[in-house]
Amino acid sequence: MGSCQPRLGAIPAAIRVFKWMIAVTKLSVNLNAVAFLRNRRDLAWPNVTGIGRAVLDAGAAGLTVHPRPDERHIRRADVPALKALLNEYPGREFNIEGYPDAAFLDLVASVRADQVTFVPDSPEQSTSDHGWDLAASRDVLLPAIGRMQALGTRVSLFIDPDPAVPAQAKALGADRVELYTAPYNAAFGTADHARVLAAFRATAEAARDLGLGVNAGHDLTFENLPDFVAVIPFIAEVSIGHAITADALMVGFPEATRQYVRVLGGTA
């Protein structure tokens, strides 16, 4: 990502250029990287709930976690603690990501998360690296979507940039899709930038035209986020964890959060 401080200094100019072009996209801060740092030692800090409070106070619209079976970052015990924190902030949302096996669904149900994002990750993956093959995963997803929606939890499906996929998500009964944006980051600033961004735009438009909400996440940064939300101004929510944590090492989580919120067209 390079040096953080020069980028932060450039943010006001980006805001002036893009703010008039975009609707306000909500920021959900992913706390996995904070939990991963905590878990390096048998200590209670950095405190995941404390960082959650700091970013909510700074204007984040919600918190995201991705608890994996081996608890290498977010632990099961973090989930009810974060839910209790969010209860102090009416209108802020709890988004829980994960593969919809029985244990994961029970965890989400135990706190009645506002949103669940189903991802096709295997337990050994270090991070998400692809979207669902929805046709092949129908038998896994259909009952999981029904169970979550019966609890009042919004369901989002993690997808690759392909305009044909949102129709499959709609057929399964999903409420939203989340665009897997690592390919966008990889193309950013290269000769493929416009082509890749156009594919994301077409996928997002296909979802919107079907009545699906559109989220986005993975490798979104200060540099690449303004272009993305300018071209797709109807993104409902972005989930950002690794990049905002890296920036927070330089300027602190509250300031990093405020800068992201401003880039997204909000005030903080």
Shape: globular
User: Based on helices, strands and strand pairing, what is the structural class?
Assistant: alpha/beta
Return the string of H and E elements: HEHHEHEHEHEHEHHEHEHH
How are the strands of the biggest sheet laid out side by side? 1-2-3-4-5-6-7-8
CATH class equals: Alpha Beta
> What is the number of domains?
1
Q: For the CA atoms, what is the radius of gyration?
A: 17 Å
How much helix is in the residues? Answer: 40-55%
Mean pLDDT: 90
- End-to-end Cα distance, whole Å, is 24 Å
**Strand segment tally:** 8
Low-confidence stretches: 1-22
Count helical runs. 12
Entry keywords:
268 residues, alpha/beta, TIM Barrel, eight-stranded parallel beta barrel, 46% helix, disordered N terminus
Blueprint of the fold:
Elements: H1 4-18, E1 26-30, H2 32-38, H3 48-57, E2 62-65, H4 78-86, E3 93-98, H5 102-111, E4 115-118, H6 138-150, E5 154-159, H7 165-172, E6 176-180, H8 182-187, H9 193-209, E7 213-217, H10 225-231, E8 237-240, H11 242-251, H12 253-263
Parallel strand pairs: 1-2, 1-8, 2-3, 3-4, 4-5, 5-6, 6-7, 7-8
Walkthrough of the structure:
There is one protein chain. With 268 residues, the protein is of the alpha/beta class. It has a single domain, classed as Aldolase class I (TIM Barrel, Alpha-Beta Barrel), CATH 3.20.20.70. Helices cover 46% and strands 15% of the residues. It has helices at 4-18, 32-38, 48-57, 78-86, 102-111, 138-150, 165-172, 182-187, 193-209, 225-231, 242-251, 253-263; strands at residues 26-30, 62-65, 93-98, 115-118, 154-159, 176-180, 213-217, 237-240. Strands 1-2-3-4-5-6-7-8 form an 8-stranded parallel β-barrel, surrounded by 7 helices. Helix 3 packs parallel to helix 4 (78-86) and helix 11 (242-251) crosses helix 12 (253-263). The longest helix is centred in the C-terminal third of the chain and has 17 residues, at 193-209. The radius of gyration is 17 Å and the shape is globular. The model is unreliable at 1-22 (pLDDT under 50).
